[in-house]
């Protein structure tokens, strides 16, 4: 018997039981969807649409080859962030999820602070738990998921964090410079009353948070701002954190400015007059993380600082883009101001502090602390050479992880070597 020639099933007669069309209706639909998925972002990019940092973080940067194998694992977050129309897609998915299913869309999970990679010699103490990016509270309150996730996924205990902070402080002081750390408390710490009665990670969050504050407040160079923030909230009759925002309002910025100034020169704020100003409204930063298609806003009071009690040194507009470049503030002068050069390594909480810092510090340079990674370590270290005082502002949720990049051995040693080579004695 002769062997029948091999035929693709689509070439068989339609009457044949094995006949299958090469492109059925479902195949055509899938093909069209694939083409749209691949070409729509490319077309949008060609038309000038560019990705924006609509989430509560900066866009992932292109990884460096010096990172070794982590270069490949870091490519995916970079590629995702660079997709044009991603913000619109997230909002559309969020609207469908809320409208059809009555719940927020599960846009990935958050198992850490998200922006800062862990040093190579650390590993999670336990298998990661999947936490939501945003923890929904009561009465419309929202909390950044990292505030719950990070205490539950520490890479090292608080004792080790304290030891590393002391090493950094001792090295800075040995170079003849002053050193201060200002911790921006989590909203979950300051306004816990709107958290659900029970939520994923509650027990480990509460335990780790208590241990964190117990250990960190023993350091005399660390500024614990919780009491001041609570007192201001009691005076206002409302918390100084917005219901749908992950950051403090301007009261936090003024508090941080006063405490840093007094730490560097005790009593300098005694002559200050702080006056309330206009109300401001900006977009809230947590709803976009849930894909909410409805714009949400947060509102607060602005303030003016008169360092000598007479002259207003507060600038109406201050550059806060210290992520892409160092920002130098040099507008304040006279009684009640601090004139010595100060370097501030900061995160996003300093955004609402910048104009107040600029009203009392006459020679202040702000740099994003997270920039001190990879090829950015040396530039950040060199920037500090000129400074007589170094201040670190760090969010509680970042420091509690044990993976704060300024405490990585390679970053810390590079900064301290640079400062030691250029002492201020």
What's this entry about, in short?
The chain has 425 residues and is α/β, with parallel strands linked by helices.
Radius of gyration: 26 Å
Mean pLDDT over all positions: 83
Percent of residues in helical segments?
25-40%
- What about the largest sheet? 6 strands, mixed
- Helix count? 13
Question: For this entry, what is the oligomeric state of its chains?
Answer: single chain
Content-based structural category: alpha/beta
Shape: elongated
Strand order of the largest sheet: 4-3-10-8-9-7
Uncertain segments are: 91-103, 108-121
Distance separating the two termini: 100 Å
Beta-strand residue percentage: 5-15%
How does this model look, in words?
The protein has 425 residues and is α/β, with parallel strands linked by helices. Strands 4-3-10-8-9-7 form a six-stranded mixed beta sheet. The longest helix is centred in the first third of the chain and has 22 residues, at 25-46. It is built from 13 helices and ten strands.
Which SSEs are present, and which pair or pack?
Layout: H1 25-46, H2 70-81, H3 86-101, E1 134-136, E2 142-144, H4 145-152, H5 158-174, E3 178-184, H6 187-190, H7 202-216, E4 222-224, H8 226-236, H9 250-264, E5 273-283, E6 297-306, E7 327-329, E8 342-346, H10 354-360, E9 364-368, H11 377-383, E10 389-395, H12 396-399, H13 409-421
Helix pairs in contact: 4-7, 5-13, 9-10, 11-13
